[in-house]
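Quick illustration, no need to memorize.
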Amino acid sequence: MAKISGWEKFRKAVTGSYSEKLTYQLAQEKAEQVAAAKMAEKAEAEKRKAELAKWKADVEAKEKASKVEKVKAAAKKTPSQPTKKPAAKKAPAKPAAKPAAKKPASTGKTASATPKKATAKPAPKKATGYKANAKDGDGDGLVQDGTPWERPATPKKKSTSTSASKKKK
């Protein structure tokens, strides 16, 4: 900051201007202040530009993630694909028959002449889970819940009272 003496103040009051030397110093200071303000403005603009670029990148990343999630959700809910129903609970399988334990080596004595019993394997069960007249036990409107034969329950037919028809006669 240029120092303005009492003489320069008096000169300004009388003549209306400062000396050439002081005028030049004041002009230089003003130019430096303007340049500093421009530099600060540029730095602020660059800072805002960087913040804006970061914000745009974040928004684009969120949009991309959102699109991916929408595609995944749409793929899961495609109406053309059948929905998987929970499998019916099956009874635990019976353990297979264990082979007969071997007898220790003979000591020269003859074994008894009883024949060994043949272990018959049980016949495989047929898939007879379908019931034509199944009842809706839990009242949810579906019969044979959780099976491949799950279907809507047929509405119950309201029986007409036979006593009412007898009274008319």
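Residues 23 and 45 are 33 Å apart (CA to CA).
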